[in-house]
Write a structure and sequence with these properties.
331 residues; 0% strand
Amino acid sequence: MGLRGYIAKRVVYSLILLWAIMTLNFIIFVMMPGDPISRYIKAQEGRETSKEDLEVLKKVYGVDVPLQERYFLYIKNMLTWNFGRTRYIENPIALEITRRLGNTLLLTSTAAFFSISVGTLLGVLIASRRGTKTDTGTVTGALVLSSLPVFWIGWLILFVFAIQLGWFPVGGTYPKWWAGNWPTDPLVYLSGRILTLVLPVLTLFILTFDGWMLLTRACVLETITEDFVVTAKAKGLRQRSVLLKHVLKTASLPLVTAIALTISGLWGGAIITETLYSYDGLGRWVYQAITQQDIPVLYVIFYIDALMIIIANFAVDLVYGFIDPRIKVGK
């Protein structure tokens, strides 16, 4: 099987996987205990619902038809991006996703950039000093740090930098003093956004950079003893050149996969971090939908999250197909 056959096979696998995930997503929410209409009525406190209103609600949410018809309607709506409306917000779900997506991508992509950059460089550095006290201490510290819960780290950062020192706002997407006085100066706007981003970005960075460091270290250690590395050192190349141009390049395949999956997960936001800092992104919206049992929103969020991961895996497969000679020659 050559490169074209490999790509065609991955396309078919991806489509089958997408259908399976959509079906599983539908089954999970259908099997949830309780009646979605009853949950909706319960949320509307102080409102009396007549039988006519019940019939209208059942028709609006598509629960007045047999289960198989609901399934095909669900598949059609997901594929055509006809997500409907939420139960608690008048705006369509697609519009709410668009409104919150920019905030989430700004937060998560900034944190991912620093995590990947710092974690990769530190991983190469400690791998080059394997067996030393620096290596042992750094790995131990990373393992301890990765075991700490996100809400504890977030509260600690808030307490120190926002409450005690007062350097940054406690939370929010924009500075509170912008209310009713939206800045027109781009520099003022940029500085205000940075001010509210520092603490949540720092929280996500602390939680994720250690994983990149340990992954890079493991990948580099598998490569650093290869013959071509020994030859490069014997030619008198600098240690930095050997590590970055020879070792890291060869050990980058697992990192490519990890980076692609990280990018695919950026849009979903960081649920706990966004909620902790009252950041108006998709992650906080997911938390609100879970607590309010807003099933239409969860349908869409889980579907698109799975779709992004499938696309990321497919992209990684394509990259492998171009950089792996075994696939090019049909082995």
